[in-house]
Protein: Acyl-CoA desaturase
Amino acid sequence: MRLLPPVTTPQSAVPILTPLSDAQLAKNAPLPLTPQTPYSQLNDKAINDSVQPDTSTRTRYPTVTDAPLSKPQSDALAAELNALYKSVMDSLGSEDARYIQRIYATVVYSEVIARGLLAAAGRMPSKRSLVATWLLGTSLLSFSKILNNMELGHNVMHGQYDWMQHPHLNSQKFDWDIVCPAPLWQHSHNYLHHTFTNIVGRDHDVGYHLIRVTDEQPWTPEDRYNMFSTAVLAFGFEWAVAFHDIQISADEYADSPNLHKIMQQKSRALFAKIGRQIGKDYIALPSVVALTLGRRSAFSTLSGNMTANTVRNLWTWAVIFCGHFTEQAHIYTHLDANESKGDWYVRQILGSSNIKGSKWFHLLTGNLSHQIEHHIFPDMPAGHYAKIAPQVQAICLKYGLSYNTGRFGTQLKQVLGRIYHFSKPSEKEWQAYVQSTKNADSTTHKDDRSAANLENKLEDKLAIENTGGLTRFLPPVVRKAISYAW
Structure:
């Protein structure tokens, strides 16, 4: 199975359910199947019973090691969801096209007006008018960037509007206003995350290689700083997303003789996009404003751009984490080699969480406040999620599946509680860590990679270690990308 689409060819998020090779399955060998959730007690009677699952038997931070539904149940579930999907997709037409075009126009015009206000702020005669104009411009620019990122960029690059055959509002050509190139995000998100959702070791969005969010991730001393790491991730979320695929691809292609060529292509695309984004927001626009309106206007423009990007990062992080890491977001230990479309649907439902809110709230989340609907139908135009949510919830109830939803404040509190909970080791985890440190020096780790691959890894490691100057203070993944770029 091809894990890496070419950097110049974005991909939409249609679920990939083709059989995996033996080598891919061996990367995550199944753990013993032992029921740990109430869903493992369901039987075929649940198909016809409209009874809500007994919430008293639920555990916090559940892990699934057994199939929640039998194959006949999951097949029946898939048939109902497929019918719902088809009914919506068959109804798409001019109204949906006008909607996304209005969103695009709103993003463009709000950005233009916001940048005009930020430039004008420096020319205001009084401090009060300067602050008021700057706040209005920054707020409008934050709105534009959030809308660009969530409702426009995220959804268009999922292929939700490819049916329109629009010249640029399609998953093959659209690129958004953040430092991550579209093809890199589409590989790590559209393919890996949406195919292997919440499977530890396969879905790299589980913790983003930085935060422990399940007991299936072995505890290390660095996890004590979970809350601090989360704050860093939230403030710089677009940067984490940008380098996320570099870390993933370096691990996935470690055995490939073309490792350096593949990573060079990705790294160069990444740094080119970073250069364009930094050049636009922090160099070109402030410079033009400085030449035309003076230094005060340049500063108001620069500070407004920085603030808007930060606001967008914090908002995006909050929405994404509330959709994936609440108390009842299920984590899977392995990928079922015989996973059907119905099993895939179940995994998406149990691994996702919705957020209640107003119409404007849903718009600003890119309708990712309907994360369950998005995960089961990633290429359905997101504006339809609110309409089908009651039907999806009814289907979940019918099959005894949890439909996790709550207010934004409640979901965010659960996310932070989960992150804090897994920053501390249990007694068993602490003992395991102590024992592992004692055995570290005496244990020889086996490596089945070829000599050619070992040579490639050694060369790349030396290249990373030999990056001098200020680069030695950069995070390892950034240094890795720099080493591959040349």
User: Anything to note?
Assistant: Residues 1-56, 444-452 have pLDDT under 50 and may be disordered. The chain has two domains: 1-90+183-435, 447-486. The beta strands are 63-64, 331-332, 354-356, 405-407.
